[in-house]
Design a protein that fits this description.
This protein has 367 residues and is of the alpha+beta class. The protein has 15 helices and 5 strands. A hairpin with a 2-residue loop joins strand 2 and strand 3. The longest helix is centred in the middle third of the chain and has 37 residues.
Length: 367
């Protein structure tokens, strides 16, 4: 029997017995599915879900309004990328309270939230290419639109912004953890295996980096690289490798004393092969657990950066950015605008922490 396979099977069986771990893993898979197909699921599939309706800003969840859609002058063809990156909106949506057909024009009254009479406007048939007669406009271009989670302060659909915003949180986790693993595993393995002056030099770098507050270091790196989408990912990744390096160093220092490593040296294997083929595979269990915790930490750091205004820049939707835009609404009687993204961050972070706890129990050889 293959020992590696049997150990993997045992760990998998132990993981399956952890109900919260399995539930969190299923929740994570659901989040990844939503992130990939966000624009397919979002009611507003324009790029970055940035369709604004200022007259219906800050509406409560479940808000409904009648909407008149006026097609844009430029007709764009749908492409495959529209389903994954959104489409450029060329149409104009106008919230209305009522409409009527007058001669060869449609007359509408715009929606107002203060109870006053809205502006009245008229539109001719020529603006609606799919309608062959004026009476066909209501059935083809007027519909009732429901905002399940309400609208933000710019009148954008909050549900669409939340669905697309999950991409930022998951992407920052994956990329930041990948960067931290590449740097941390490399530095930790070199320090633990060679020891001596090499270990002392790397530990000095680790201790200096560790002494700087994480958020302060991220802010410094972000300001150095510039504000932007990828800059945040790199900045967060460059601050999370220290813990990985320390753990890998400790594991390598213990594993390199094993007899099979001594045998590998006696057979004349190179240091690179001994580290990659014999030591690291037997020292990665704690690293996997730390990666789950780092994933959660990366999501929190990105949310904090977006809240401070140096994370993902508008109009890119970010859960931290949504909280930043609406935290003042907590005392203005509309706390849901900040609570909804806050609960989303909490749920995703909790899921990763529970997965990390389940992995810790599953990979614990003492049990």
């Amino acid at each position: 029997m293959n020992t590696s396979t049997s150990l993997t099977r045992i760990a998998l069986q132990k993981f399956k017995k952890n109900g919260w771990g399995v539930f969190s893993f299923g929740f994570l898979i659901l989040c990844i599915f939503i992130a990939v197909f966000a624009y397919v699921l979002a009611p507003d599939n324009s790029k970055n879900a940035n369709q604004m309706h200022l007259s219906i800003h800050s509406k409560e969840p479940g808000f409904k309004v009648t909407m008149l859609t006026i097609p844009g002058e430029v007709q764009t063809n749908h492409s495959f990328s529209d389903y994954f990156f959104g489409k450029e909106s060329v149409s104009n949506e106008i919230p209305i309270t009522r409409y009527s057909i007058v001669d060869d024009k449609i007359q509408i009254t715009e929606y107002t939230s203060d109870g006053l009479e809205g502006l009245q406007k008229e539109y001719s048939l020529s603006l609606f290419p799919k309608a062959s007669a004026i009476k066909e406009i209501p059935s083809q271009y007027i519909s009732e639109k429901k905002f399940i989670l309400g609208t933000d302060k710019y009148g954008r659909d909050l549900l669409s912004r939340m669905l697309i915003g999950i991409r930022i949180s998951l992407a920052i986790g994956f990329i930041a953890v990948f960067i931290s693993l590449v740097i941390g595993v490399t530095m930790g393995a070199i320090a633990g295996y060679f020891g001596g002056k090499v270990d002392a030099a790397i530990m000095w770098i680790i201790n200096v980096t560790w002494s700087i507050p994480t958020l302060l270091l991220v802010i410094a790196i972000t300001l150095a690289l510039g504000k932007g989408f990828w800059q945040v990912f790199i900045a967060v990744g460059l601050t999370m490798w220290v813990e990985v390096a320390r753990v890998v160093r400790g594991q390598v220092m213990g594993v390199k004393q094993m007899q099979y490593v001594t045998a590998a040296r006696a057979l004349g294997y190179s240091n690179f092969r001994i580290i990659t083929k014999h030591i690291l595979p037997n020292a990665m269990a704690p690293v996997i657990i730390i990666s789950a915790a780092n994933f959660a930490g990366a999501i929190l750091i990105e949310s904090g950066l977006s809240f401070l205004g140096i994370g993902a820049q508008p109009p890119i939707p970010s859960w931290g950015g949504i909280i930043k835009d609406h935290y003042a609404y907590i005392i203005l009687g509309k706390p849901y605008l900040a609570i909804i993204p806050g609960l989303a961050i909490m749920s995703l972070v909790t899921a990763f922490m529970l997965i990390g706890n389940a992995l810790r129990d599953a990979l614990d050889v003492r049990n």
